Amino acid sequence: MTAPTPVIFLHIGAMKTGTTFLQTLMHENKENLAAAGYLLPGERWVHEVRAVQDVLGGGPGYPAAAPNTAGEWKALARRMIDHDGVASILSMEFLSLADPKRARRVLRSLQPAEVHVILTVRDATATIQAQWQTTVRNNSRVSWPDFMAGIRRAGGIEGRFGRFSWNRALRSFMRAQDVEYMLDTWGRYLPAERIHVVTVPSGSDRTVLWDRFAGVLGIDPGVCSELPEEANESLGYASTELIRRINMELGRLPHTEYNPTILDFLAIPVLAGRREQETTARLDRATFEFGLAWNRRIRQAILAAGVELVGDIEELPVADVALGRAIEEDQAPPSADEILAAATVAEEAMRQLITRRIRRLRKQDVAVDPGDGAQRVHLVGPESWTHAPDPVTAAVKDIAALSRRAIDLNNRLRELRLRTSR
Questions:
Q1: How many CB atoms lie within 10 A of CB 149?
Q2: Is the pLDDT of residue 231 over 80?
Q3: CB 120 within 8 A of CB 17
Q4: Which domain holds residue 64?
Q5: pLDDT for 330-358, tens place per residue?
Q6: Strand (E) or helix (H) holding 11
Q7: Which one, of 342, 256, 260, lies nearest residue 53 by Cα?
Q8: DSSP of 31-58, one letter per residue?
Q9: SS3 at position 210
Q10: Do 247 and 153 share a structural domain?
């Protein structure tokens, strides 16, 4: 008797379309999914991230692989191919970045499975600001006005080659949000009936997105009964601007140095907790109209591809109706007082992080000089920022100096882990 063909669902993104919610929901209900016959192949989501980094192979425009990821994709793929239940599910938005060569590599490595691709799409007027924040949290130094001006280039001739543009805003937007390219890339190797586009609902009820996603999987949505806590990773305008300026002071850093201190600590959760206290960066009229035009382009791409549409195409609006409230022409940048309020929180948090990392080193019997902490960095300090010629610059320099110290301590911790794992 012939063994049944394994079924694998690849949720490839796009970015900023509810991917974090879906990934968290499924991993928090991993046992329930397993009981229903569905495999999440990574022990934790981070293992799936590392495996996808491995198969994409790095290079310009692709996430650099974390240390020791070689072979992780091969092992993950084998688990999915060998699964004898209903199906395997891999949700990782880095897959949306794949060019045709990399998409073919992924699909060939999963033979002889029946592979389905799920692409979640969302109203561009709701994703543009979130995309800017994401780039800043990942070491970008592009300001909000420059980001808006850059992505609008996607509507012209530059958009045809935007994935390779010199303009960082345009390049990051096209790589993350060019649904037409994603559909064409994966549609070269999969029949249309095995590509599923799920629209993200515009309301606040997150379960609607899961209901639609579960429908594609062929599973009862109630299997995932444990909803994750509301996890809004967005930042206010002032906090995002503060991180952008810190990025300018720090310069380019490897993700292994930047992420543990700035992305995963300072941005989230420290400054994300201030979101309700700060104003939000808002679209200007030209960028809002670009977003509507981009939605029209996404609609046309979906219809032309002939793929399965789950949801409502009208959730990608193309007309300026009540959405006009999202516009603020000539929005003033955050004031010095707003940035300094965020900086005060960031400075204290960074000092605490340094103290914790020193303690961890000492617990491993690593000698750390008594003055080898935050106090070793010669700082102006929050109490003196307002007396500096440029208070914001003084604050940024202080936090960047603390960040460098925290990064150095984390490098020592990482080296210690690598030595003990050998």
A1: 17
A2: no
A3: yes
A4: 7-223
A5: 899 999 999 999 999 999 999 999 999 99
A6: strand 7-11
A7: 256
A8: HHHHHTTEE--SSSHHHHHHHHHHHH--
A9: helix
A10: no
